[in-house]
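This is your field. Please look over both lines of this record.
***
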Amino acid sequence: MILNAIQAGEGPPVVLMHGLFGQARNFGAIQRALAPKFRVVALDMRNHGDSPHGVDMRYPTQADDVRETLLSLGIERAAVIGHSMGGKAAMALALQWPELVGRVLVSDIAPVIYQHGNTAFTTAMQAIKLSPTLTRREADAALAQTVEDETLRPFLLQNLRFGPQPEWKIGLAEIAAAIPDLEGWIDLPGTYEGPSVFVTGARSTYVLPEHRPIIRSLFPAARFVAVKNAGHWVHADNPAGFLSVLEAFLHEWR
């Protein structure tokens, strides 16, 4: 699958991969900051943003999407940055096609199985009645019955197109069916020996100390960095802190 790509800048290629329910445009500020020095490619992952929809959302499949898309853009080697779902896809890409990955930064996720409760989110999203008169306020109120986090609801609703024929822009049915795969992880053979950084939010509990041996078994050169004043959405919670880590990560990328 060829994914939708938003590109900016010129120079060594840097690829940005968002998390579940996100889209390439969520990295807009990061992309603008890096564009003076790098060719920054922000991707809409399958079933997200303006990319095609597909039933299979396993991480090896998502990684193959990224590989195919980069090659179609004439990119044979890139620095790869992925958050959450995108981080798992980035790990799968590095493990399966290490020659394509010059270095990898994984933001607040580990190669393990999680239980995040995303099924409740997709159920609540699917339960919203998509009438022609639907307002954002009404949609927010419908979600609020299940999604208590006031900052999360607008993030989910960015995927809903309002108007005379409201519709979900994302492949919501495909995502809902694939939650076990998205919260899971498929063990892949081999290791990635290149530079790798695992960034966590200091307030996040997604990457625990017991995950580090698992990470290092797959990424022997892994380094770990915690960003202050950030939870799971590291790049959104503390953009300056995340960008500082990212710029250090890319300092030697040529």
